[in-house]
Amino acid sequence: MKKFLSVFLPIFLIFCTTCTFAKTYKAVSASYSILVNGKECSFDNPVLTVNGKTYLPLTEIAKALSVEVVWDEEERQVEITAITPQVKDKARCSIYVDGRFYCGLALETTVKHRLKVGQSVSEEFLSEIQLESEKRTAFDKALTHLSATQKTEKEMRDYLQKKGYLPATIEYVLEKLRGYDFVNDEEYAKAYVSAKSGRKGERLLQRELRAKGISEEAAEAALSGLDEQSQIEAAKGLLEKYLRGKAADTATLQKAYRHLLSKGFSFDVAKSALSVIWDGEELE
Fold it and tell me: Structure pTM?
């Protein structure tokens, strides 16, 4: 019988030593009901909500699902539970630790270090052997990914993570890319604003840049070159396309106004663009 956890809550696997936080964290017991196979479960350790995030007692959740969690606290080791060939790259395999995908490794590396199912290894060891054997391959893949279009540092980091590379290897690749100026978030932000400002407003551009991992400072610097008049002209261009073939009645113009706002233009810019053809009642 398939087992499932009928609750949409994030399960966080936390392997860490004691850390010091400058931020204050408030933990409270959550009043969620946890169901496994339709039956409510009770746990010795409470479900906690910490600053808006929910944390479940991992060991008890795993027990309810009949999943074994193996963690050697003294040696800080985990157990390799599966080694499977990768479908898209026969020269690489996927390493699973305690039933979850952990990283990708070259088959040659796996054989060289005699990795096998049931073996206990440290996370540091897996990170070291991946960096040693695959840093060049990871860098080459990053260059190929960059060849089509310019990318932000966050986009490159996400790409490498999806490829199964561990933090040490990812940092090695990103450092080299920065050194060659192949990733430069400041220049990316400027180029993005230059290319998109003809059909998007400042607010939308800022949201998109932040979503791509651009820092607030770099985004503001890139957007500082936009002036109100250029934004008004861009809004007029969008307005002309939106109104093409439509009657310029009150309802349509109200919709056009909201359309400009949805594209990230400010209230003042949107009103200025519409003022050329509209002098009626106040727009909402």
Answer: 0.60
